[in-house]
Amino acid sequence: MAPDINRTRKYLKDFDFKNLFIDELGWDHCGNTHEVSIDSNNFNLNAVAEKRGMVAFVCSPLSNGNIPDYAVRRKIERQIAKSVHEHIIIYNDKLKTTQIWQWVKREAGKPTACREHAYHIKQPGDSLIQKILNLVVTLDEEESITIVDITGKAKTAFDVEKVTKKFYDRFKNEHDSF
After folding, report:
1. DSSP conformation letters of the chain
2. Are 50 and 150 in contact (CB under 8 A)?
3. β-strands 87-92, 54-59: how paired?
4. Over the stretch 105-147, which tens digit does the pLDDT of each residue have?
5. Secondary structure, 3-state, 153-165
6. Averaged pLDDT score across all residues of the chain
7. pLDDT digits (tens, 9 = 90+) for 47-56
């Protein structure tokens, strides 16, 4: 069954990540938790779903209710990567108005590249939904899908570098032709 965009949008607005991943994206249940300590702050990362070793985590906000800044988010990500190499981390504030989705691109011989997408509940969320729908695992894929396939889906979802390069290469060709 294809994911329902309206239901996906509602799950995003409700911060209902577990049902988003399991009901809409076809991921599996996962109940792992990890605690990470960064700069005297403790963060709980609750796994809401997993697929073939890639885990989707939701990270608790700072004690003041805010989402940690980029530098702290990168430290959190590096700590969790020691336990779960492939993952997505969703950061949200205590008031549940803002989310930051984080995925890190890992390629042998290259530095890691952090990709983030911010979402606010007053936004329609179309660009994030478009990314999230790349993470869908269909029933036809279920038996044969691997961690490499799931990582490829995350790369398609969050790595805009390839799309941007393709756009500019085509733009340059069109410009030269003109």
Report:
1. -PPPHHHHHHHHHHT-HHHIIIIIT--B----EEEEEETTEEEEEEEEEEETTEEEEEEPPPTTSPPPPHHHHHHHHHHHHTT-SSEEEEEE-TTS-EEEEEEEE--TTS--EEEEEEEETTS--HHHHHHHGGG---HHHHTT--HHHHHHHHHHHH--HHHHHHHHHHHHHHHHH-
2. no
3. parallel
4. 998 899 999 999 999 999 999 999 999 999 999 999 999 999 9
5. HHHHHHCCHHHHH
6. 91
7. 999 999 999 9
